[in-house]
Structure formats: C-alpha cells, structure tokens
Amino acid sequence: MKIGEYLKEVLKSKNISVSELSRSLGLASRNELYRLFNGYHSYDKQKRMINAIIAQVPFSAEETKTLRCLLKKSKEGEFALEVKRILNYIYAPDIKPLTVRRGSIKKKLSAALCSHKGEKIIIASGIKSERVIQEMYDVLKKNPNQEIYNYMSFPQGDVLTAYEILALVKLAEFTGYIPLECDEAPQAGLQIIGTEKGKPYLQLLELADGEPVLIETNISNEMYQYMLDRNQRMKSECRPIKETIGRVPDYMQILGDVLEIDKGDVISSEGTLCFGYLPAEILCEMFEQINFFGYPKEHPYPQELMRLVRDREARLHSAGSRNMIFDEENVKNMLLTGISVDHLEGFPPMNPEQRARSFKYLIEYSKRHPESMRFRMLKDGTVEYPYAYEKGRMLYIYRSNTSDAGDSVIMLVNKNVNEVMTIFTDYVWETRTASDTETAEKLENMMKKYLGI
Asked: What is d(CA 123, CA 148) in angstroms, rounded to the nearest whole number?
C-alpha cells in the first residue's frame, strides 16, 4: 500500500475529516491533502507534511511506525515517475482520451468550452489533466484570440507544477492564452463566463477531487458584472509571465535579459538550432541582408544587437555547459529551408552555405569543447513544444504566435520549477536521446543528403 492510501484509511478510521485536518495544519486548501493522498508530492514535501500530521493526529505507535516505513519506501521515485509521464507529452503531443467510469469528461469539457456563441472569457486554475490541457489547446487552435486566463502558482515539490509547465509549453503560441503567476491559485477548475442573446451565463467545470462535474446556469447581470470585476482584480494582483516580441527593441530586451541570467548549465530542447545559437558571424551577415532593420549600421539598435549576439557566442566558453536536443524532422526542415526553430520574422532564410557553416560549426565546436557544448538526436519522436531550461534558475519558452501580434516568450526565473525540470531533462537526455557520436554521424549524413556536402 502507498503512503497516501494508508494515511487516508487511518484518518477515516479516526473520523478525522480532510477539512478538519487541513484547518489544524494551517493549509490554504484541502487540495494539499488530496495531492498527498494521490502521491502528487515529492519525497521532501511528503516528509514535511507527514511529520506535521504525526504531530497533530493521535496515531498509535504501530500506525506511526507504518507511516514512517511507507514514507521511506516512497523515496524510490513515485513523484519522479509521475513528472516524467506528464511532461513526456512534450514529445508525444497526441494526447489520447482517458476512460472515465461514468461517461467521458471530453464531452463535458467540449460542451463547456465550445457551447454558446458570442463573447466569453475562460478562467483556468489548478489543471491536473493532460486531456483538459489538450482540450484548451483545441479550443484555441480554432479561435486563437479566445481569452483564457490561466492562474498558476507552481507549488514546490508538487506534481501540479509539471502540469503547469505542460500548459505553458503547449499553449504559449496563442494570443488569447494569458498565463498569470499568483501566490495562491483559485479553486481548481474552469469557469466560463459569457452572454448569449443578452443573457449572462456561467459554466463551471469542477476538477479538484473525484469525478469531474459540469455545472451550467444563467446568472443575473449583477453576478455577471461581479465575476468580471473579480477577474480584473485577480489580474491586477498577479504577475504576467508571457511577453510579446513584435519590434527590434523587444528582441533586444529579451536577449539582454537572457544573457543576464543565462550563466549556468542549460539543456535546450528545440528540435534544431535556435536563432540565438547560430554563429555570431552568420547572424551579423543576416542583419546586413535586411539592412539592419532599416536603421543605419551605426545606429544604437544594430550595434547593440551585434554586441549581444557576440556576447552570447563568447558565453559558450565562460558559462556552464549547453546540451541541445534535436530531432530528425526539425533538423531536416532547417537544412532544406534555412529557417531556424525561432527564426525572427523579417529575416531571410539562410542560404545553403550558411546552413552548412552553422551545423559544421556546431559539430566542430562540440568535438573540441565537449564540456561546453553537446548535442543529441532524439531516438524517436519530435520536439513539438520547444523549451530551454537553465538548471536551478530559468525555464525559457519561445513560441511563434498564431496571429500578427508578434511572437511570445515566457521566462520563469528562480521559480519552483527546478525539482520537476531537473528530473525530466535528466531523464530525457539519458534515456530518449542517441549518443553524441551517433548523433554527429547522423547529422553529417543528413548534411550530405540535403545539402550535398
């Protein structure tokens, strides 16, 4: 028996409710205990909570001994297995519907998100379901400007953080997706607030515990306005974590921010070379091709951009290691088109000679300096949702938006993502990628095939 299951049984035998225990422990929500029951906490967080519960509940000596024994067994990695399972969807994007005993949540969710015409806003928080995230993706794919406010808290040592990262990685491309970081997320679920034929309505999909429940009701104009005002207050109290890049100064600001904090070991899972890691010499040639964004070469914008890209290349020698994860499909596309994974709008494709130079530089540099740069090819699958992670410091997501509003970037700096991302990136690098030698050989063969060299 797992520790959460045993604890739940013992509390039930003592007639101690989840609400009662949650209050006595000073927890912000009962969800913390439900996550403990379901094995959604890391070992360290489990240990802290179990010790706090033992101090509050009159367990027998035998019950306490059993709890500590089960806690020791849980150190073997149940949390890590769950993190890997959730985030594996980054490399396997087609999420298959799960079977629900009393009907399919997919129908309920589709009804909630897709019914009713006219304007509406969607408020999401605490989403612990790959399928719900996929349904949100499907809705935004059809209507990328549909507003979805996703309130996130990134609890440390909690599997919810893995779901929050999955949502960010999958949904960042859509203009209407608005992720906001808050100290404490609202009740888990989806709220859909809108009007149809002048009548306001509320749809509520409860996802916190047990069987998902969809509630739909008409509401008064006063309640409708109250809920809109409440969302405005929540927005003002939370921190936006998604920025749009639409102009040269935007790109300069983001690149400068990345250089400021990009000082440690980085694992970059972007499928192929990203724009920022093209050789500085080639980037400067591309700046010249587009006439330096329409500015004179001596203007501060192009001068600062060239300084930043040269600084980033020099950083390879002085900062931590750079481990890059590629896949065959994305590398092939770049070799054939000259477009990098996050190619900035307005830049021409690289010509075949520049493509060859970029990958040759990568191969030769990694052979001379394996401590600074390594790259590996996925054994199978593709990187559908690119990201970069600097261990212990930053999760970086760059996505091309689905509209003309400009591309978007998400940077989570010094947030509670370290435990989850370290578990996942180490696992992917060690088990899902080919060796350095096999990868270099594969890339050289692809260059011969697609570039004739």
From this structure: 6
C-alpha distances (whole Å) from 66 to each of 12, 18, 60 are 16, 20, 10
Residue 199, classed as helix, strand or coil, is: strand
| Residue pair 290/234 in contact by the 8 Å Cβ criterion | no
Local structure of 95: helix, strand or coil? coil
Q: Checking DSSP bridges between strand 407-413 and strand 394-399, what pairing results, if any?
A: antiparallel
C-alpha span between 440 and 194 (Å, rounded): 54
Q: Which residues contact 62 (CB under 8 A, 6 or more apart)?
A: none
Q: What is the pLDDT of residues 42-93, one digit of tens each?
A: 878 888 888 899 998 888 999 998 888 888 776 656 788 889 999 988 887 6
Pair of tokens at residue 191: 């709220």
Report the sign of the C-alpha dihedral through residues 70, 71, 75, 81, in that order: positive
Question: Long-range contact list for 283-292, CB < 8 A, 24+ apart?
Answer: 283/309, 284/309, 284/310, 285/354, 286/347, 286/348, 286/350, 289/347, 289/348, 290/346, 290/347, 290/348
Distance, CA of 24 to CA of 56 (rounded, Å): 7
Low-confidence ranges of the chain (pLDDT < 70): 74-77, 93-118, 185-186, 207-212, 246-252, 255, 258-262, 317, 402-406, 414
Length of the chain: 453
Helix, strand, coil percentages (3-state) for the chain, rounded to 5, are 50, 20, 35
Alpha-carbon span 337 to 331, nearest angstrom: 10
Sequence-distant (6+) residues with CB within 8 A of 416 are 154, 155, 156, 157, 161
- Nearest Cα neighbor of 366 from 351, 376, 381, 379 is 376
* Contact (CB, 8 A) for 415 and 389: no
Question: Which run of H or of E encompasses 201?
Answer: strand 199-206
Residue type, 452: G
What's the predicted TM-score (pTM) here? Answer: 0.79
Contact in structure between 220 and 379 (CB atoms under 8 Å): no
Predicted confidence at residue 139, as pLDDT, reads: 85
Instruction: Report pLDDT for 195.
Output: 87
What is the pLDDT, as a whole number, of residue 49? 86
Q: Which residue has the tokens 């006219």?
A: 118
What residue type is assigned to position 29 of the chain? S
The three-class DSSP label of residue 82 is helix
d(CA 436, CA 421): 22
Q: By the 8 A CB rule, do 140 and 174 touch?
A: yes
Write out the two tokens for 229: 């005002």
